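re: that chain from earlier
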Amino acid sequence: MHLEGTILVGPDFEPVEGRLVVADDEIVGLEERDTDSDDVICPAFVNAHTHIGDSIAKEAGEGLSLDELVAPPDGLKHRLLRTASREEKVAAMARTLRYMEATGTGTFLEFREGGVDGVAALRDALAGEGVAFDERGSETREAGKLFGIHAGERDADDINPAMDLNPDFLVHMVHAEGIHLERLEDRGTPVVVCPRSNLVTNVGVPPIRELTERATVALGTDNVMTDSPSMFREMEFAAKLSDLSAREILRMATRNGAEIAGLNRGVVREGADADLLVLDGGSDNLAGARDLVRAIVRRAAQADVSRVVIGGETVVPRDD
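^ sequence. v structure.
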């Protein structure tokens, strides 16, 4: 397979006009050359924190607190999950997976409810879409299982105890204080932030700029119950909330999540996994953009997606 257009190369997404060559599941060549294509080629997104099990309950529970919405065992989410059939949950997750693919997500880090049964349900949802769970997760398992933990979502009280457990990464950190930022830097602990979710659940918003000064920070969309799992929307919100550079935000949506997961993707370079997002740079939305990276972060959407490649295979548009 080869793709032509403007390729956003490396961790800084430098625009290079040319051809990208893919063999099997790997990027094997990058040739700088003139092309007639308006396509923009960048890494597929890595959604670093999801709860897709609650896809059965989109926009339920307006006005409820965080605990009333999602706290186990009797938060609204858990009550709805208990009453839904397995078939309903698997079908709802499969729809969410289709949407995530259609909006450019190639990898997601799922916090799975339901224990072993919950993992089996996710396997079924993935298998129904032709994505083999074992193949997509094999690199992570070979490197050792990741340990991520929620911290600092409601308040700061659980941050130090969470860090004492030596997690591979922390999620949320809305209420991170100076001492926590220092510990993050000292330990090299990455953080995943989910600002749209935090705003909806009324717990505040994370200090994104301060976190990025001390740690590797990635983006996640959190609960499908409260927010669509669109990394386009998450990037735009995070960019406008933090006023970080567009390149930093795009790294948070791609390379940084891959680094947290120990995966060889999230960047366009020879030898990296061929997980790619191709956008129509000539679309009514993106045509005329003076800064392609800024346009992707702040205005691109599903309608601008022309192709998604995962593991070297085109999954959007679908053959069927």
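DSSP finds 13 helices and 14 strands in the chain.
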